[in-house]
Task: inverse folding
């Protein structure tokens, strides 16, 4: 008999995200898996909801019988206007570089069917239900509407730093960096992410931090940080360089940056729509952090 771990099924979704749109990888970082080894399926009682921009890549298939059992017990419970029992199909939806299988209803399939493998984009609301023992996550489609927003847009200042693109293969990136700068100076861990630290320039004390995506995305570069503890004027991206102040950086990026004090000397520069940030010392940029969103 299959074991279903019921972690307080409230059937009331909560929105854990301040961003209008996020990526699948950003969601996984915010909601890591906490599976019980004794259960075939673990539910998330918060039923977190998020919005993502996608294309339908198909094909749509019926939910496999060896998976559909996880919702049979809740056939008359509702996800917004739909019952659990309404979800009968699974369809791959692509966001930026990643495809994720989503469970959908017959009426949702009718809306998506003619748009499979086209350039038509949708903004969809998804609900995370839980994950199987093999770590396959289950998402329900709540609502969808067509969108003209650029599919590959990111709210971050940049999707690359030091020639490294977010989402790149982690091992290949590490090999390239170590060929150029030598072995890692240090290793560190931030939440569920692992990072390697490299000295880029000894004279300006410039250091590069390369983070993976944690347990589920350990093969990808998820975050990058470049910090100079000397007097570097190195260009970062879009003409922004170490030593710029908030006014100069805001103008170059075309983004309104806000300032939050961290200490008597250092401040954090950020925007309301992004997880990416700069750090300043005596009002001059000395560090930048970019991440998948």
Result:
């Amino acid at each position: 008999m299959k074991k279903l771990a019921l972690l307080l099924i409230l059937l009331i979704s909560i929105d854990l995200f301040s961003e209008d749109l996020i990526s699948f990888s950003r969601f996984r970082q915010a909601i890591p898996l906490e599976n019980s080894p004794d259960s075939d399926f673990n539910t998330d009682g918060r039923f977190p909801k998020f919005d993502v921009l996608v294309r339908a890549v198909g094909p749509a298939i019926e939910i496999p019988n060896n998976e559909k059992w996880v919702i049979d017990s809740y056939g008359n419970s509702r996800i917004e206007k739909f019952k659990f029992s309404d979800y009968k199909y699974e369809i791959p939806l692509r966001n930026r570089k990643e495809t994720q299988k989503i469970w959908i209803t017959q009426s949702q399939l009718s809306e998506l069917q003619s748009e499979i493998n086209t350039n038509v984009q949708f903004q969809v609301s998804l609900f995370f239900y839980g994950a199987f023992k093999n770590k396959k996550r289950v998402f329900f489609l709540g609502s969808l509407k067509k969108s003209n927003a650029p599919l590959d847009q990111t709210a971050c200042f940049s999707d690359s730093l030091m020639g490294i693109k977010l989402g790149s293969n982690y091992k290949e990136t590490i090999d390239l960096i170590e060929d150029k700068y030598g072995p890692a100076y240090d290793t560190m861990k931030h939440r569920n992410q692992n990072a390697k630290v490299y000295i880029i320039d000894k004279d300006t004390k410039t250091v590069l931090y390369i983070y993976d995506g944690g347990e589920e995305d350990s093969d990808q570069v998820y975050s990058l940080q470049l910090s100079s503890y000397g007097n570097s004027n190195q260009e970062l991206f879009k003409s922004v360089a170490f030593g710029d102040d908030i006014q100069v950086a805001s103008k170059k990026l075309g983004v309104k940056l806000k300032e939050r004090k961290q200490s008597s000397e250092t401040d954090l520069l950020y925007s309301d729509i992004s997880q990416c940030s700069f750090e300043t010392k005596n009002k001059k940029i000395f560090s930048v952090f970019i991440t998948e969103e």
